[in-house]
Amino acid sequence: MKLLKYILKRIFQVIPLLVIVSVISFFIIRLSPVDPLAELKLNPSISQEVLQKETRRLGLDKPIIVQYGLWAGSFIRGDLGITSSGEKVSVKIKERAFNTLILAFCVVFMTWITGIPLGIISAVKQNSAIDRLLMVLASVGMAVPSFFFAILLLIFAVKTGWFPVGGLTSHNFSDLSLWGKITDMAHHLVLPVTVLFTISIAGLQRQMRANMLDVLDSDYVKFARAKGLSEFKIIFKHALRNAINPLITLLGFEFAGLLSGAALTEYVFQYPGLGRLILEAVMKSDINLVMASLMIGSIMLVIGNLIADILLLITDPRIRT
Amino acid sequence: MKRILYFIFILLLIFIFGKSCIKADIPESNTFSSANAEAEQEIDYPKSPRNITINNIDYLQSQAPCGNYGGELISSIIGEGPKTFNPFTATDATSSEMGSIMYDGLFTTNAVTGNIVPKLAKSYEIKGNDYIITLRHGIKWSDGVPITAEDVLFTWNDIVFAGLGNTSVRDMLIINGKLPTLTKLDDYTVKFTLPTQFAPFLRQLTLPIAPKHYFTQKPDWDKNFDTFLSTTTKPEEIVSSGAFRLKEYVAAQRVVFKKNPNYYEINLKRQRLPYLEKLVFLIVGDFNNEILKFEGGELDVIGLKGGTVALYKGKEAKSDYKIYNLGPDTGTMFAAINMNTRKNKDGKFYVDPVKQRWFNDRNFRAAIDYATDRNNMVINVAQGIGIPLFTAESLNSIYLNKNLKGHSKDINLAESYLKKSGFYKDSNGILHDKYGNTVEFNLYTNAGNTEREAVCVMLKQDLEELGMKVNFKPLEFNSLVNKLTNSYDWDLMVMGLTGSPLEPHSGKNVWYSTGSLHLFNQRPAGKPATDKLNFEKELDDIFDIASLKVNFAERKKYYDRYQEIIYNEKPLIYLYSPIRISAIRRKFGNLFPSSLMGLTYNIEEIFVKNTEETK
Amino acid sequence: MMKQLFKNKLAVVALSILTFLYLIVIFADFIAPYSKNYSDRERAYVPPSQVYTINEYGKISRPYTYNYIREYDPELMQTVYKQDRSHKYRIKLFGRGEKYKFLGLIPTSRHLITAEDGGCLYLLGTDINGRDVFSRLLFGGRISLTIGFLALLVLFPIGLIYGGLSGYFGGVVDTVMMRFAEAVMAIPSFYLLIILAAILPPNMTSTQRLALIVVILALIGWAGFARVVRGMVLSIKTQEFVLAAKTIGAKPFRIIVKHILPQISSYIIVAITLSVPSYILSESGLSFLGLGIQQPDASWGNMLKEAQEFTNILYRPWLLTPGVLIFIAVVSFNIIGDTIRDILDPKKKDT
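Output (structure tokens, whole complex):
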């Protein structure tokens, strides 16, 4: 009951936040001198009538406040509007959302499964050669511009022929068996996941190391040591659990962060995800599409935090009030 | 111990550094091999397909050699993929291409001669202003419904002339304020009646024909026309007439077509075409990704440009692909000069009056033209894969004015032109006009396009040789177009336009004084031009008159003159035209590349050879 | 702190690399053989000049180089550069080249290294416009290496004042201010970045554009920083010495400046070293999309953009050098940042 009340309270807090986000985003986008019809205008075979029709259809002839009002009204009703090329925004986002979720899931899974053990090792062997090495490796991973790393990997794929060159599925995907489909997708996912993994592993590993150091320094671990428990037992039975808890908060951020952070990677790999969709929409100033994706990004972040908070509430009894 | 290790490490560093400083002068062996280029082969084009009637069905018979059935061809489209599958609402090239694969037009263009040849129609006859068109008996849509005059009537009267979807064809056919009329003579004959003679008309009949029974199945079809056949339409329900029909569309990944079993074209053995089982278009974001996919074997055909040509040409002999030279591109690249002298709504000039004087001075424009180093642009930017361009029509246009020979860079001539108009250089080498104003202006192009940015950097240097101060600012594409079409506040701009090598009238939007793309002297939409420059007047007349001449030679005289005017007046300074080079896997047969139509225009005739034939 | 930093050998290496980079960038005019706009259109995409110290007879000689000449092979549609071995050009130290102002003050035309008159010295080859990659690297570094600091310079005052006020006043003011900051943080940052970069007015000089990109980078980072400041102010506010200051009637501004600022200075140092590299990467990402620093100006990001074409990566590796420099600079910053953070972490002092 308490939990439910807490969740309701949090959701209620989120609403003004989303309103502010939408106002900021909308006005920034509309301030831009970018013309959503630019490409049409430069096509010699497009007539004035077509252009006027498009302008009316997109509501570009009305003042900006009215445009925001119209947008907000339909957004609340669940209608995300149409893109500048006349497709439904909701359809476009649906097409891509699943792909991005797969990618994000793989990346988060990989970073957690490697980041946490590496963080523990660094903490336990603090200031040793291996700790230093991990620190350098983590810095190196963060230091390559993601798009450049992605391009290099693509060329690697071409030269060796070991991996497909971008995309998510092969052209004969729909004719494959279920197992064939799964392996085909996995094969395509290796490279983009590698890039995003390399970028995000460092943060998690450093965080885990810091948390672990905190916990190892705490009184109850000292007490356990004094009791003569084996170091192995202390780390895995007592320290680990407490060190991971704060990371759960990070999970929400990481998931939402991937939506934005993966854009360049998706772009280079021609991955059919949300990031690339939004990137292309922003470049064309496709208002409805950009707004919808920014809102989705923000909502994901907020929900991510909410879920993390709830998880924390369940796993860590100390926080329950 | 540690000290010693450090010492060794530092010694090693010094050694490596020293080693890299000392370099022996041994002549390099030439690493570029030049022996393995293949000689260009003459292409033996088959005769144009002809009509043949078997069991009362009027087939079209391909005259190309017979091939094998099966296999697939994987091509690519750059960008975001199709926005609609409706060829009548499509406004972008990709959507139109997808539409034209599924829907044939009454006629098509012969790849060699550029003439109009029958496709869905069996034949045509011109009687004065009447075009009588006979359709084929017994041919069917992909769902088995016969294709009849009703479909033609529906397409032209209910869609095109009614102004549904993309109205550009309709707009072009408004002749003296009137549209042509279309009447049905019988189930397989229709008649177009034009208000007057109009040369570009016949070519408009390449427009796809829509299946009436499919388009009108819902009562409110005309109100929902813009969303009809959207990309979410179930592929299996789409009724088409082309060689291929839609199999699947996966957003941002690919469009897959499969063969249409009811297609009306047959081969010399009287078997139905097409040969290929599937036609796949991978959606790729940019050229870089496309080339990687070709290199990785995921694509069968690709258009090459710049440095990649040399790369693939060098490897061609030992590879599984063949490279075809398709001749100059149909697009043009130019530096446009803003000759606008009007004021905006607030009474302010779009262009600074000082600059107006320069830009409206023919000598000034000529100076820019003669200072431009097109040869080095071709060699450096296009990496040799291009030809300097001087004409408004592209180099492969059948209306190209071959008398305009062009010139190479001549800085002295350029300076003498400037001198004629009273421009002078001061002691610091800075150019002033005769009133003493420093010559300084902005040069724009779209940011992110490496090729155009590089051209602009060169152009800027060329003009600075004349003492002009040029501020080069790459702009985001959309902002650039906004300048061109709305705010008109630009000076010099490097841009490109696509054109038709067959129909100069399609460039009317650019050259007509009230055209929506009359870049160099853009007037606001819907306002009559009361302040036409002399050469603009002549251009208007040429485009009005030339479209009424049906005879090619007679028409060409007018279009020759229009190119001459542009060449002399130089409102747009043409730069160069890239050469289209395509690579395609050797396993495909029946390839007859043409400079007019490209490489895979005859997709229904292309087939996959048996493995031993490939070698 | 500095002492501890110098004890860490890795950090020392990183620090010396950065010092070196900043030095050559500051003296770019002098070190670079050419200016950033110098272009040799007869030699676009030429490979790096070969500098020889042993001549063709096997004798040690003063360093010299050959020019490249361009040949076009129409059969292969290929531009080939060959060394013109008919004339040697000596490499000179402190030779005369293009005029410039040393450190922006002293007009001179001496450059560290040049080739003899008529010779071309392209240590890292040239780009598509025949501009010297080595020289542009140095000039581009000026932008890439300072953009992060400039952004922080804009960001810190905003964050400090915003977070400080919010934390100091508390209550409704705090709630409203923090909701707004959270909203800014909730917008996916990379998209915000490209939207803002895409709306930059086009009629800007390159300096203005640089300034605005800096402001944009700052606009995205300030909210997070403001939140941290607020948190610190909140916790410090309740400490006894601040309460004491308040009771003796010290003004709020004085309290913030005197007591709170010193406490967060260590955090600022860590934030600088850790966010500068992320700004360098952001600039390169923007440039990759064509929204960053524009031609003909150079930045490592926009130079790398040109290099990313397939043929360039495979056949013109000298164009990839900006990528290498970005990498080196970012790694160095990260290592220093990590080390400082470890040093400043009070929990670690006892270990």
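The radius of gyration of chain B is 28 Å.
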